[in-house]
């Protein structure tokens, strides 16, 4: 039966290692995303000017220190993706987490990234330096404590599984003890006490468990070290976890002392270890054990999937807290631009320059699907493209010749001969779309173009 015990403990350690990696340590990693030794802070005011000034002060006066931003990217998969913006990037150890359901993506922290943040950052600056920066900004910088995922979630979502698992452990130890009763009876006939026999059993369990556990942890940590995922916290927490598992195993062995008390020396001499009633109970326990094993496997699979989904839902909700209408979108700067025509025009000119002078391509089209099938074809098939795209990916010709640069100098509608019958309708629709796009911000009280410009339009066939 010693082989049975060794195999059982080996499978048990494998099972609990899986449970530890996918639940407890998975939560630990998600609660400790920030780089070690970096403390979290949050700016009380997050206007673009304050964020810009903070980044400038940090990079100019504290460039020898570290600065980190953390964004949780929402994905359609079960994998949690974290974008880590680090300054300076080469000072950070770019390792991946142990949990396979988590992915770290490292980026160099630029000013634009900090401007798009919500004012939460992690740094190794001393407290007096933080106070000095806050004084220069005239803005309070408070300690930031992230809302941690409670470890109790593991117990809440898997309580039934753990109860069943404990029952399975207890049944296995009872079966192991029942098959060792003849040996136990001999020891009792030699004068060994129940406590001494239990001590021997506990010693065997501890020895097998410790050896198997240490070998497994060594192999796991070696693998994580070779794949750039090793973390000492994993070794420390896993050792504590398996000490707890070992304590549960010892408790199960102690409970089996009830069986040892049923051993009769008279029955042992007659080549029997248990009376008929106890033997029936043992056989019934074996049957129950088989049923419980099947139920446990099915339940663990179902609950494991439910746990991952619940955990991801908590993360998604947590990382949406404090953000604007989109991850990384600073509405203050947008509202400020809408309220100042000069700034809005400057942004428009910069966007135009980006597409026209940086060899950038723009092609946008409608994807209304079947909702617009009743509308005319020229409304359903509208495509907006910039000059670079037209020059490189189109063969539009005017009177058999490629388009010249002068064609882009003023608003012009070119209608192919194929659609000559609809020329007026197409021209009118294009005009309306043109002015609608040019005046997209008119609802904010800022009208940049007027319909008087329609006189500049020309229709050519």
TrEMBL record:
Residue stretches spanning the membrane: 7-28, 159-179, 205-226, 232-260, 280-301
Keyword Lipid metabolism: no
Endpoints of the signal sequence: none
Domain of life (superkingdom): Bacteria
Keywords linked to the UniProt accession: Membrane, Transmembrane, Transmembrane helix
Keyword Isomerase: no
Protein name in the entry: Bacteriocin-associated integral membrane protein
Organism: Coprococcus comes
């Amino acid at each position: 039966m010693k082989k049975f015990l060794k195999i059982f403990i080996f499978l048990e350690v494998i099972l609990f290692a899986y449970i530890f990696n996918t639940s407890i340590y998975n939560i630990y990693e998600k609660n400790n995303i920030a780089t070690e030794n970096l403390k979290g802070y949050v700016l009380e005011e997050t206007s673009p000017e304050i964020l810009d000034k903070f980044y400038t002060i940090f990079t100019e006066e504290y460039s020898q220190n570290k600065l980190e931003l953390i964004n949780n990217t929402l994905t359609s998969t079960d994998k949690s993706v974290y974008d880590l913006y680090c300054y300076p990037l080469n000072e950070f150890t770019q390792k991946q987490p142990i949990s396979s359901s988590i992915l770290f993506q490292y980026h160099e922290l630029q000013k634009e990234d900090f401007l798009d943040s919500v004012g939460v950052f992690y740094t190794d600056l001393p407290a007096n330096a933080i106070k000095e920066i806050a004084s220069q900004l005239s803005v309070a910088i408070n300690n930031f404590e992230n809302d941690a995922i409670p470890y109790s979630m593991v117990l809440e979502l898997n309580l039934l599984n753990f109860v069943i698992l404990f029952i399975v452990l207890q049944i296995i130890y009872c079966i192991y003890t029942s098959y060792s009763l003849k040996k136990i009876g001999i020891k009792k006939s030699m004068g060994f006490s129940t406590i001494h026999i239990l001590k021997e059993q506990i010693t065997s369990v501890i020895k097998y468990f410790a050896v198997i556990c240490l070998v497994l942890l060594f192999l796991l940590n070696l693998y994580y070290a070779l794949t750039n995922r090793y973390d000492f916290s994993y070794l420390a927490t896993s050792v504590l976890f398996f000490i707890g598992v070992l304590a549960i195993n010892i408790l199960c062995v102690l409970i089996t002392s009830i069986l040892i008390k049923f051993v009769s020396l008279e029955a042992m001499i007659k080549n029997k270890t248990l009376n008929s009633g106890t033997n029936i109970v043992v056989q019934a326990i074996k049957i129950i054990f088989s049923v419980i094993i099947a139920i446990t496997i099915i339940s663990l699979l179902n609950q494991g999937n439910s746990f991952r989904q619940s955990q991801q839902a908590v993360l998604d909700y947590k990382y949406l807290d404090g953000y604007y209408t989109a991850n990384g979108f600073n509405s203050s700067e947008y509202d400020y631009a809408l309220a100042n025509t000069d700034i809005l025009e400057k942004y428009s000119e910069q966007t135009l320059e980006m597409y026209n002078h940086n060899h950038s391509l723009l092609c946008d089209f409608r994807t209304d699907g079947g909702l617009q099938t009743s509308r005319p074809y020229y409304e359903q098939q509208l495509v907006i493209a910039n000059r670079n795209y037209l020059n490189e990916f189109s063969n539009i010709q005017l009177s058999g010749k490629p388009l010249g640069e002068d064609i882009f100098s003023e608003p012009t509608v070119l209608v192919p001969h194929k659609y000559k019958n609809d020329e007026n309708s197409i021209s009118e629709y294009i005009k309306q779309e043109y002015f609608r796009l040019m005046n997209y911000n008119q609802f904010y009280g800022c009208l940049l173009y007027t319909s008087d410009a329609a006189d500049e339009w020309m229709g050519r066939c």
